[in-house]
Amino acid sequence: AHAEIRSNPTKPRGALERGNYGTREKAKDPKFQYPAKNWQATKISASQRYNRIKQLLTKRGVAPIFEEKRYAKNYHYPTPGQLFKLHQQKLEAKAKGDKAAATKKAAVETKKKA
């Protein structure tokens, strides 16, 4: 077998040969071509990704979980000190028994008012 391969390494397979010692029941169509594959995805910005996800969620009837301000240019994530302060406010509200104020949304709204 090796001498044959060395003599003609580009010898085409027979019509009924297939892979490693496999055989076909009928010959493969010579005009058949597999579709071309394209793995290069186009890059999208964060706002485009946000809008795409927002559309998918609204189509499903689910409220969007992202806040638009996170994708605004001038938005800055809270510093560790600000996070600690928000956490303290939530704990104080929880200790008072105010469940509505203990939520994250209420803490953010109180921060906006201040």
Question: What this model shows, in words?
Answer:
There is one protein chain. Helices cover 42% and strands 4% of the residues. Strand 1 and strand 2 (22-23) form a beta hairpin. It is built from 4 helices and 2 strands, in the order αββααα. The termini are far apart. Helix 3 (80-96) packs across helix 4. With 114 residues, the chain is mainly alpha-helical. The mean pLDDT is 77. The chain has a two-stranded antiparallel sheet. It is rod-shaped and about 85 Å long. The relative contact order is 0.05.
Query: So how many helices?
Result: 4
Order of helices and strands: HEEHHH
Overall form: rod-shaped
Span of the ends, CA to CA: 84 Å
Major sheet attributes: 2 strands, antiparallel
**Strands, total number:** 2
List keywords for this structure.
114 residues; mainly alpha; two-stranded antiparallel ribbon; 2 strands; 42% helix
